[in-house]
Specification:
7 strands, alpha/beta
């Protein structure tokens, strides 16, 4: 019995490590993390402020949302499908005493309404962002800022930090083809 437990633990650790380096064009969502440094850059570049409602699609551990709430005064909604990441982020948010400002939902972000967002943050693979673009254009109000990390999306870019690979876009007033 002890051998089976050890094998299960080793498999979980290997899957966790594999999820961090999974190829960016794979259909799966790798477990890439956003560092506090990058989250601050995202918030500054997107000019997040008190009154903003930040949605983080694939919110992971909630780092970007916690920075946006604690340091920039925003409220946030994290959408994460992975139950382990949801639990991890909820515990981190509660420990940081930010539960009144941040809500985490265990859902598929394709299935939720994001129209309340004034800012959307995402660190997603290119295929997923391409699939998301019609939803962003349909549900988000013109002027809503969309922040990506590492990968770009085909929307009008309004700011960029090339060195740190942070890009900010704005949902256009005139709808563009998707």
């Amino acid at each position: 019995m002890a051998v089976l437990i050890i094998i299960a633990i080793v498999l979980v650790i290997l899957l966790y490590l594999l999820s961090m380096v999974w190829p960016p064009d794979s259909p799966w969502s790798p477990w890439w993390r956003t560092s506090p440094k990058i989250a601050r850059i995202q918030c500054k570049l997107a000019k997040i402020k008190k009154g903003d409602i930040v949605y983080d699609l694939g919110s992971g551990e909630g780092t970007a949302l916690m920075i946006a709430a604690r340091e920039f005064g925003a409220t946030g909604v994290g959408i994460e499908i992975d139950p382990f990441r949801v639990l991890t982020s909820k515990l981190s948010i509660a420990t940081a005493k930010l539960s009144s400002q941040i809500q985490i939902e265990r859902k598929n972000f394709f299935d939720i309404d994001i129209s309340r967002a004034t800012v959307v943050i995402m660190y997603l693979i290119p295929k997923t962002m391409a699939r998301l673009k019609p939803k962003l254009l349909k549900e988000l109000k013109p002027g809503t800022r969309v922040v990506t990390f590492v990968y770009k999306i085909d929307l009008p870019m309004i700011a960029a930090d090339e060195k740190n690979e942070v890009y900010v876009y704005e949902v256009p007033r005139k709808r563009i083809k998707h």
